[in-house]
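Exercise: predict the fold of this chain.
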Amino acid sequence: MSDPADGQDDPVDFALAAFREEGVWQVQELAHDVLADIETLSGALRRFPGDGGAVGLVAIDEDFFLVVRVAGATTRVLLSDVTAADEWELPASAVEFLGLPLPEDDDEQEPAGDLDLLGDLGMGAMDMGMLLDDLDLYPDEMLSDVARRLGFGEQFDAAVGLASA
């Protein structure tokens, strides 16, 4: 499995935390050293002062993304492609956190986890599922759409260097 700390080129496209403070969305970059596993990432997200927790948005190798939402002691996870767990430590940690078996070599690309983890913020399970079904989009484009629906699209696009649509 690849590991960002093993000296190879960093596969992380971006890692951001989004949270609402006094009703206003804030977006901050996460240090890549908190991406070791779901437990470490969750702990880092809990340090943000958000009204109702924080959302971590991580894209790796222009191939898949991970959304982690923490609120109090609760951690919810969505991995866009379960097969990424074969090659990368963080998605393997997500699959383990979700209590799922590691994918087999012949498994299809499919999401794993909680499709409704952002439902109360404006991105329900059905919309998330439809977005994940669009295999023509890159992870940054998918997460930009998520950010727009939640209300921090411009901040997200600026943080990752996307031109706002």
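Check your answer against the key: Confidence is low (pLDDT under 50) at residues 1-8.
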